[in-house]
Write a structure and sequence with these properties.
Helix content is 41%, strand content 21%. With 99 residues, it is α+β, with helices and mostly antiparallel strands.
Length: 99
């Protein structure tokens, strides 16, 4: 019994790498630098040294990058940071910025 197989040409799928996003922290007049340093260590996994550097950048430039992640992870980091900040009574603002 012969079996014929028909091969169909399909358009090539455009499979691209997922985009990454910067998680941005913004400076404000209410959130203490010590809290931001702690947040950067606890939520974003920074060392004391890098947490201090990022906190100074946020303080001096008005904003700084806490980390670079794929979208879902970046969203989770923002949500967790806001939850921790609000729980401590601080209005820390965060955002995502596509790379």
């Amino acid at each position: 019994m012969d079996t014929e197989v028909e091969i169909k040409n399909t358009d090539k799928l455009d499979i691209s790498k997922p985009k990454k996003y910067n998680v941005i922290l913004y400076n404000d007049d209410s959130t203490p630098m010590e809290f931001v340093i702690e947040l950067l260590r606890d939520v974003f996994g920074h060392t004391d040294e890098t947490a201090n550097e990022i906190t100074l950048k946020i303080h001096n430039d008005g904003k700084g990058v806490a980390g670079v992640y794929y979208y879902e992870i970046a969203e989770q980091k923002v949500a967790e940071s806001i939850s921790v900040s609000r729980g401590a009574g601080y209005p820390l603002a965060l955002d995502l910025e596509e790379l």
